[in-house]
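User: Show me an example of a complex going from sequences to structure tokens.

Assistant: Sure. Here are the input components:
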Amino acid sequence: MTRQELFSNIQKKKSFLCVGLDSDVTLIPEHLFDEEDPIFEFNKAIIDATADLCVAYKPNLAFYESLGSTGWDALDRTVSYLRDHYPDQFIIADAKRGDIGNTSALYARSFFSSLDFDAVTVAPYMGEDSVTPFLGYEGKWVILLALTSNKGAADFQFKKDAETQTALFEQVLRSSQNWGNTENMMYVVGATQARMLADVRSIAPEHFLLVPGVGAQGGSLQEVAEYGFNEHCGLLVNSSRQIIYASSGLDFAKAARKEAEKLQTEMKSLLKQRQLL
Amino acid sequence: MTRQELFSNIQKKKSFLCVGLDSDVTLIPEHLFDEEDPIFEFNKAIIDATADLCVAYKPNLAFYESLGSTGWDALDRTVSYLRDHYPDQFIIADAKRGDIGNTSALYARSFFSSLDFDAVTVAPYMGEDSVTPFLGYEGKWVILLALTSNKGAADFQFKKDAETQTALFEQVLRSSQNWGNTENMMYVVGATQARMLADVRSIAPEHFLLVPGVGAQGGSLQEVAEYGFNEHCGLLVNSSRQIIYASSGLDFAKAARKEAEKLQTEMKSLLKQRQLL
């Protein structure tokens, strides 16, 4: 998917919502265990209930890996279901991979060829050759960790370089712009630090940002929009648990839709305010 | 496994060799494709041919994930085979995971409960709460990326902090010693920078180090021992392709043994020189 296509989808849906499929066997409704593949059935119901309200889905790989090969099959079926029924959805593998070149190349093949994701989250610690193998696929994206939304973000990401006096996350933003461009690279920027989005925008004005921390992880949508919007919207805001675990009863999909609708309504209003619709 | 048990195994085997199971469907011998699970049969043959010469095996997760659920099953069978037939082997999931707390907790459960690995490699970019969930398992280990062996290591790992004038990999070594200890944490230190091992040892004298870069990735075993040994040996040196792809014919396991034997012979001599046997 190109940046323009993603922006068109945002305008069409009046939404920059990404629904996080953190699908946990210990949290999904009990009645789904009558099905052969409960995790896939859960995802399918959530997707059918929310697809007109969002532009992206983000399965978190840990939830699928924790089930071994069964989980991997559920993931595979989920991506195929999205591709077949909702071809305009942007599908993100939240995998946070990153390894030496030939190993990253294999991860890229897994997520982009075998599974047909649109994007994969990548950790920057190992530098350029751990990231570039993901950039060689036409229309596919790297979403590089820059500033994360967790407490431990402060341990290293804010450390200032002696030479340039810039924080590590700023160095990641700057260096990586020599590896990819606005058509194949986005950044993870946590919404718990919404004001930091202004700093991020001063370094990466044109890139899309994936913002994880709205909802259960805290963070205000209005602040995120205020500091994060650019002329292509430039934001994908994720919400996982708040949407997918809105109810654990038979009405879970309906309840998920209701939560997604709340966010989409707020997003529509923010997009209008900024004259992006 | 405790540090003392690992050291006892090193003394018993006269080896600190870790065999990397980077088992690639495009590189394993053709005749194995007559078997139902070629990757597992490959691993089994390599393990049977080398287990008396090494103390650890390290499957690289990318190779298994690239095959989807089939690969995940091969991984599961490999770990079970090691546990059942070679209980003294230290089994490392080379996964380079790391995410927010609850997600890291799920990865930990996958690798330590579902799959019964002894250790998992973890990326430090997201800080303390991305690492600590892996530390709550008795006898299990985190192997934290400190200084990697790839070219991109220079992009961020050597950046000096303005306040302490120490490189990022040194900050990772220091900070993480407040999260774990010498009984549950090791570090990845690339052998292409063998002299840097002296710097690492000045910060982490007691920890075990996993050294990936010997063999195909370059690096001299003698230098690694010179700068890296401590009184518990303190080193696991990995070799992958040089051993497992020594031959692509019917004799692949025998050829793998021969390569492992070369390294074990050199290791035995280095251990003796340092009076560790």
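The lines above are the inputs; the final block is the predicted structure for all two components together. The two ends of chain B are 20 Å apart (CA to CA).
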